[in-house]
Specification:
Number of domains: 2
Helix content: over 70%
Order of helices and strands: HHHHHHHH
Number of helices: 8
Number of strands: 0
Distance between the termini: 80 Å
Structural class: mainly alpha
């Protein structure tokens, strides 16, 4: 057993045990601060949502998803900071490369939410104007804005990939979605006749 501990310390590239213990205590403090900050930010954003009346326009499950995503993004950020504080190079670089994905997904989710809110607002503005063929214009504007924000969202979510791969994925998804929407529209028109 006595030979195992030095082997573990050598494998984790820990040279000074006292320094590692101090860094471990600091990492635990960083984690505690992250947990408290994550809960505080979730509470404040939830209060902000309720003061702006988000519950009336957006389902509670969607706001809960956004709030939970923000809270966990903060948790993971402080987990990454705590791992960096530990100074275990191989472990920290591996975990840090994984943790980059989650904030990108949270940012992507926020972009989708903002895009959907803008698209709904502009669709209602066009509907209220009652111009000729307002249904077509409002739907076209709605889907165009959703498409633009989905492209931004995908670029944010796939930030770890190179730009040519992301652009290829966006082009393929655009084609698939366009064909699906056209098929759905034609099938809907046939049913109504």
């Amino acid at each position: 057993m006595a030979n195992v501990i030095p082997l573990i310390l050598e494998k984790l590239q820990i040279n000074d045990v006292n320094n590692f213990v101090v860094n471990l205590i600091l990492a635990i403090i960083i984690l505690a601060i992250g947990i408290i900050l994550g809960k505080l930010v979730k509470f404040l954003v939830k209060k902000g949502f309720s003061s702006y009346g988000m519950e009336k326009t957006v389902r509670r499950s969607f706001t809960d998803l956004i709030l939970t995503s923000i809270k966990w993004a903060i948790y993971l950020l402080f987990l990454d900071l705590a791992l960096i504080q530990l100074g275990i190079a191989t472990f920290t670089s591996w975990i840090s490369s994984i943790l980059v994905v989650f904030p990108a997904l949270v940012g992507s989710l926020i972009i989708i939410g903002i895009g959907f809110a803008i698209a709904v607002y502009l669709k209602e503005v066009v509907q209220e104007s009652k111009v000729n063929n307002w249904e077509i214009l409002s739907n076209l504007l709605f889907y165009f804005i959703l498409y633009i924000f989905m492209v931004f969202s995908l670029k944010t979510a796939l930030i770890a990939l190179d730009s040519s791969s992301v652009n290829t994925i966006i082009i393929i998804l655009t084609g698939v979605v366009s064909i699906s929407v056209a098929y759905w529209y034609v099938a809907k028109r046939k049913k109504s006749k």
